[in-house]
Amino acid sequence: MRTSIATVSLSGSLTEKLTAAARAGFDGVEIFENDLLAAPLAPEEIRARCADLGLTVDLYQPLRDIEAVPAETFARNLRRARHKFELMRRLGADTVLVCSSVDPSAVDDDALAAGHLSELADLAADFGVRVAYEALAWGRHVSTYDHAWRIIEAAGHPALGTCLDSFHILSRGCDPRGIEDIPGEKIFFLQLADAPLPAMDVLQWSRHHRCFPGQGGLDVAGLVRHVLRTGYDGPLSLEVFNDVFRQSEAGATAVDARRSLLMLQEEAGVAGPPAPVVPTGFAFAELLTPDAEPLAALLGALGFARTARHRGKPVDLWQQGEARILVNTGAAVRRDGTRLAAVGLESPDPAGAARRAEALLAPVLPRRRAPGDAPLDAVAAPDGTELFFCGTRPGGWRADFEDVEHAPAATDVRHIDHLALTQPWHHFDEAALFHRSVLGLRAEDSVDVADPYGLLRSRAVSNADGSVRIALTVGAAPTDDTVHAQHIALATDDVVAAARRFRDAGGPLLPIPANYYDDLAARHAFADGELDTYRELGILYDRDEHGALRHCYTRTIGGVFFELLQRDSAHRGYGARNAPVRLAAQHAAQTHAGG
Description:
Elements: E1 3-6, H1 14-24, E2 28-32, H2 33-37, H3 43-53, E3 56-63, H4 71-91, E4 95-99, H5 110-126, E5 130-134, H6 145-155, E6 160-165, H7 166-170, E7 187-192, H8 202-209, H9 220-229, E8 236-238, H10 243-246, H11 250-267, E9 281-288, H12 292-301, E10 305-310, E11 315-320, E12 323-328, E13 339-347, H13 350-359, E14 377-380, E15 386-391, E16 401-403, E17 413-422, H14 428-437, E18 442-443, E19 447-451, E20 454-462, E21 469-475, E22 486-492, H15 495-504, H16 514-523, H17 530-537, E23 540-544, E24 547-553, E25 560-567, H18 579-594
Parallel strand pairs: 1-2, 1-8, 2-3, 3-4, 4-5, 5-6, 6-7, 7-8, 9-12, 13-15, 17-21, 22-25
Antiparallel strand pairs: 9-13, 10-11, 10-16, 11-12, 14-15, 17-22, 18-20, 19-20, 20-21, 23-24, 24-25
Helix pairs in contact: 1-3, 1-11, 3-4, 4-5, 5-6, 11-14
């Protein structure tokens, strides 16, 4: 299907927005009136710019507070509308969005509203314009799509139809099944947006917290299916009011927007990208560091052994069980500390995974490959992390490494349980959608975590059996000064033994305040001496209806730390209850180290 995006969904000048939409692959745009008013270009020049970029102008919006008003007010409204229709003719737009009135002078009179909209459609038809009437969720008297449709039916004008907006419909809890009673040719336009499900005034919710489909909690795909059953053949268009998007670079937002529509078409049963290839495990996690010694000491204390070295690059492979850590000290490494730079994902079909990623606009990364190097496809996640699709057959990427003589690794760690990736504040929702759509992972509910210096948001994505889990985290305050280290969680069958071995090998465990254990004693019953052991080793404890989680943390090196984690097989959480304690302990440790 054709795709479109409202210019209000992007940041920047109108020309910047048009360029971003075209580069992301959109077919058309909705021109938001404020964007046109602020543009230095004449409507004819904007029309030409769109044509040069391969964009159609699918909608001009909004025309507000038209119907069911006193006669003198309606006469002024028609004069205003005439001017807009003349402008639209210059712009090359043939459909105008008319929102249901919020004018305090508007009356609750459907017959009057129908008469006014019919007169407006008469005038519009003289200019070759169609009127798409939309029920605002906070409209003074018309706030539901079915009410708006009854008025349109009563008006009975061929140039008058409806605009359906997923936010206005779903935010009020309206049943979208009734959409199927509307003839498809009378649905002049379809606007799409998702949103989280907070408890707030619907107008505030609409103006500041909409997001692209798949990033919130509304069933946008279900609504689209109902619309398509009517025979609607217009574009799928995005209209998203969001404070974060207004402050983000337009190009990246447009790509995220286009990806959301590709994913939406797949979920709605319209032809979409190639089928998802869900990763089955972590092949490796790659750390970049300017100084390998502290990291080598930490990995050694955790029981890892340096088992191999890359044949042509300064990259070492450290392994314990099925957990593999690559340590890269190449010339391209930034001098500002250790960071998690790449993740290898085991895939049953690496080429298929790469094709889907490319179809969903994930940036494919060029890779310099020496003769004999394993062919690995990689894409960039929104935060810049490189994701490699690794085959599960023997050899593969591991053939690029030569074994080195080493002492046996310990047996405490079995595999990587999960990765925690810190996102730039303006990429959090984009990251969740990226990992869902490109990798086929399932997104869990977003949770807020109290940090001593503000709230954090966290949302985990995982495959069905939990062999791939990624926790995405961002500071709630929109500032790049909110920086939290990434971490690698290592699964163990006995966290007490693993933590004790790490400590006895000189590894620095994160100390946890005594107050935490006093509270733990009040909430749970423990065997004799068990809580004392946890206190000694800084082990945190959580329990839900599925079982227990026991975990502890290393001190941070650069921008990375490790977690030792023992979970009962049915426990799928990440210890969110303990996160504020861990964060406070990390802040205290950093403060102590600094002075």
